[in-house]
Amino acid sequence: MSGPCFTLAQLAEKFDLKIMGDADTKIIGVATLATAGKNQIGFLANSLYKKQLSQTKAEALILREADAELTTIPCLIAKDPYVAFAKISALFEIKSLATPGIHPSAVIDSSASVDPTASIGPFVSIGASSRIEANAVIGAGCVIGEHCHVGANSELVARVTLVTRVQIGQRVLIHPGAVLGAEGFGLAMEAGQWLKVPQLGGVIIGDGCEIGANTTIDRGALGDTVLAEDVRLDNQIQIGHNVQIGAHTAIAGAVAVAGSSKIGSYCLIGGAAGIVGHIEICDKVRINAFSLVTHSITEPGEYTSGTPLQESREWRKNAARFKHLDEMARKIKGNNPKED
Amino acid sequence: MSGPCFTLAQLAEKFDLKIMGDADTKIIGVATLATAGKNQIGFLANSLYKKQLSQTKAEALILREADAELTTIPCLIAKDPYVAFAKISALFEIKSLATPGIHPSAVIDSSASVDPTASIGPFVSIGASSRIEANAVIGAGCVIGEHCHVGANSELVARVTLVTRVQIGQRVLIHPGAVLGAEGFGLAMEAGQWLKVPQLGGVIIGDGCEIGANTTIDRGALGDTVLAEDVRLDNQIQIGHNVQIGAHTAIAGAVAVAGSSKIGSYCLIGGAAGIVGHIEICDKVRINAFSLVTHSITEPGEYTSGTPLQESREWRKNAARFKHLDEMARKIKGNNPKED
Amino acid sequence: MSGPCFTLAQLAEKFDLKIMGDADTKIIGVATLATAGKNQIGFLANSLYKKQLSQTKAEALILREADAELTTIPCLIAKDPYVAFAKISALFEIKSLATPGIHPSAVIDSSASVDPTASIGPFVSIGASSRIEANAVIGAGCVIGEHCHVGANSELVARVTLVTRVQIGQRVLIHPGAVLGAEGFGLAMEAGQWLKVPQLGGVIIGDGCEIGANTTIDRGALGDTVLAEDVRLDNQIQIGHNVQIGAHTAIAGAVAVAGSSKIGSYCLIGGAAGIVGHIEICDKVRINAFSLVTHSITEPGEYTSGTPLQESREWRKNAARFKHLDEMARKIKGNNPKED
Q1: pLDDT of residue B203 exceeding 60
Q2: What is the C-alpha to C-alpha distance for residues B338 and B117, in angstroms, rounded to an integer?
Q3: Which CATH class is domain A101-303?
Q4: Would you list the DSSP string of B78-147?
């Protein structure tokens, strides 16, 4: 009942923000503009929600200086309101601490090592030659195979699998159902039968990465599949063998990245996008949702493929024409197919 | 060997159907038109399969009145043959009943409560302050975190994870590998590093919902991610934080719905479709398979995006032209780019 | 430290290859052209990597006869360098052998049978009437339901679920998180509510198949979902109920196949492609990545849908025109809409 409580003055000082209005306003929680009530602070970061400003019942707001004139509610002025909100929000997060020690049901190979400050949950198994470092949390039902390493302060929430040769850095967070280090999809056709190509490499996950629920990252065929530091993967992403992802790149849910492709740093990949194999994407590229990248990208910028959504009746007529687009182009006077 | 047996007369009475032909015809099982044999009843619901009617060896058929003249086999006449088939089919389903009680291997926090009629399978863990109601079934290997609630008569088949603050209604069915209540993908960029936005909300699943295998539903950042009653999700679907889905909406496999979007009631979302974040889709919208919804939809109807499949040689020529479509349009006399 | 070591002469004899250069060259490992070093053999199969040939520090190479003139490094000449590489690579794979026997934590129904040579890992549960054959490996955390069968020499790596009525052939490899035999997505609408259609069938997986991590294969509604022999599925694939897949077909990651569709033999389905329900694809069809198959395909060949990736600014202009493509076509003199 008696959770944390802060005045605007305290929050402003803590996070170096400017106050407008009553500095003694008490805040006991965070909320959206639409749902905020007594003693809750709301925020305006996405201009889509500006129209909710006049209706909000928030006790206080976090917003940009330019938006402050839109309201008479007490405000914290932030250069980046979303960042300020994230930090203030964290003050109200209740996290139960994992208990150090190994649950009696866990099965740990005699050649594995577990730091005494680490927490190993029920029904966890840890294979030969694997190491769990200080303060790491291995939640219920995780399976850690052989030759794996989980760095200090990393957390595998629950039911995560590290198959083999998976190196997890420090402060990495892996959500339930993720599978790292499964054999990549390497096949050669011989005499009408598929022959399996051994997958001798591993997976390396840099410090501070986050891996979403049910995301899969295959181990390398030769060499490793590598995520640099602070890479953020959402849920249900598929990362093929020997993919490399640069630092601070964020990938939204349901994206598929085929084998041996290389994605730069500070890239943003939209949801359900696809990236074919054996290509390179340079730093600071943004791929929009549901787009397919079929060739290397050497210039930073924003890229898209696909067609707009239409009512199906309209769409069908246009889609039928797409099948004859080349023909259409040839019929247009002055349009030279050789130009393309 | 001696399973259930019904005459057409019994089935007709039970489900209020009309009989054509011998009412004493004995039925001991259901099958497709193509595979049905002695004492099996087949059905014709999808007109694609009408051509199989002349070849079928079914002992009896379920079909629409209008199709009855196409056959001399004894029939049950139904307004909706698929519904009638579903009900008759259920008579032949063998379900093993879960045994009430807690498997000795399960690990249950002392502050959690489990109804004595509930069934808790092997290797299940249940966290602090969680409650499992009457007749609920928690299958092998499920992980239930803190502050979760599973309503009466709901079933988590096996290896389901409820991370934290997940409220499951009554008669909900969740298939293996599903992960509900993982932290949403909330990130803010500060000084070149990603800052995690706390995910303080939960997940609420209405009565009678179904959640497919390996589907993921993230918990809300502020407020909850909500599925109303009777929502049906197929496998491998990704539902972002704070999404709201209206009653009776059905979503096919591999769909991705980005955060904070709102889908109406009685919508049908085709397989592998995508829905971007922060939009609204009104009731009774049908999105075709593999289409991307990039803006709010305010009119019921059917919507599509994408292009038709072609032989790659043809496709390549047309796709190359797509890259110059605006230029083409400008060359056409009378076509004013300002119009668009 | 002292792993396997072979001379080129030994490798050439073992795999029937031709040698160019010093036959006594010693090989202690395999690597890519870019990373190979002392006593490691590299390979050139994909011409994309030909440019790395001049820089490689590999001790020896596997390549096609036609490429041999590009290097002075000792070579093994192979008709298919990737096949030769796969076989040589396997000589250097370290696999830990599973120990026969049942881990004491496993929970096995009294009516299930487990061959004494099979290996059952920790936290495995096996349901009524299921059978595990000789030398099969059931890894940690797998859940096997009722009436399942795992053939000889098959391996379920870890955390695999076979729900019910799943028949796995011999030498099948299933990666973590895969779910086979969950109820298909069968729904009928009655009086504004969804009615569940019972899923009475099972799943049959042929000999030598491979199923990727977090892939889902639903059981049939009536009859079974069937994969013929040597079918290879990558990660995160969704296979709907009653799908049939022909022998030697390979499907890349994140593909979705809707219910009751039939895919031929020797097909290659690219990553994140989609296949709608109730259609047939003949043998030897190649579907490119991210393409949607909306109708049956009766001719072998390569097929694609979608549009090329462009800078978003360019893409937006072209995409806007796509919405009026039919209108454009009608404006072009001599273009008759009836033709399409």
Answers
A1: yes
A2: 68
A3: mainly beta
A4: -SSHHHHHHHHHHTT---PPPPSEE-TT-EE-TT-EE-TT-EE-TT-EE-TT-EE-TT-EE-TT-EEEES
The single-letter DSSP state of residue B339 is G
- The single-letter code of the amino acid at B234 is D
pLDDT digits (tens, 9 = 90+) for A104-120: 999 999 999 999 999 99
Q: Tokens 């193509």 belong to which residue? A: B34
Q: Is the pLDDT of residue B35 over 60?
A: yes
In angstroms, what is the C-alpha Rg of chain C?
A: 25
Residues B198, A335: C-beta atoms closer than 8 Å: no
Domain extents in chain A: 6-90, 101-303, 316-340
Its pTM stands at 0.96
Cβ of C223 and B306 within 8 Å? no
Alpha-carbon span B241 to B218, nearest angstrom: 5
- For C44, the token pair is 């050139």
Length of chain A: 340
Fold of the domain built from segment(s) B6-90: 3.40.1390
Q: Express each pLDDT in C76-104 by its tens digit.
A: 999 999 999 999 999 999 888 899 999 99
Q: With beta carbons less than 8 A apart as the criterion, state whether B263 and B257 touch.
A: yes
Q: How many CB atoms are closer than 10 A to CB A222?
A: 26
The owner of tokens 């440019």 is C51
Q: Report chain A residues whose CB lies below 8 A from the CB of B129.
A: none
CB atoms closer than 10 angstroms to residue A37 = 12
Q: Is the pLDDT of residue B125 over 60?
A: yes
**Residue C32 CA to chain centroid, in angstroms?**
22
Helix (H, G, I), strand (E, B) or coil at A10: helix
B212 and B230 Cβ atoms separated by less than 8 Å: no
Q: Say if CB A224 and CB A239 are below 8 A apart.
A: no
CA B216 to chain centre: 13
CB of A293 within 8 A of CB of C309?
A: yes
- Chain B partners within 8 Å of A153 (Cβ): none
Task: Show residues of chain C in contact with A302, CB under 8 Å.
Answer: 311-313
Neighbours of A336 (CB within 10 A): 9
For residue range C313-329, list pLDDT tens digits in order. 999 999 999 999 999 99
Q: Tell me how far apart the alpha carbons of residues A144 and B42 are, in angstroms, rounded to a whole number.
A: 48
DSSP A258-274: -TT-EE-TT-EE-TT-E
Which candidate from C200, C272, C318 shows the least CB-CB separation from B323?
A: C318
Is the pLDDT confidence value at B336 over 60?
Answer: no
List C147, C241, C248, C324, catalytic entry: C241
Contact B126, C129 (CB under 8 A): no
Q: CA-to-CA distance for B201 and B198, rounded, in angstroms?
A: 9
Neighboring chains of A (3 or more beta-carbon pairs < 8 A)? B, C
Q: Is the pLDDT of residue B66 over 60?
A: yes
Q: Could you tell me the two tokens for C273?
A: 């492609």
B6-7 and B26-27 strand pairing: antiparallel
Q: Which residue of C has its CA nearest to B249?
A: C194
Picking from B263, B238, B260, B240, the residue whose alpha carbon sits closest to that of residue B250 is: B263
- Token pair, residue A220, equals 């390398």
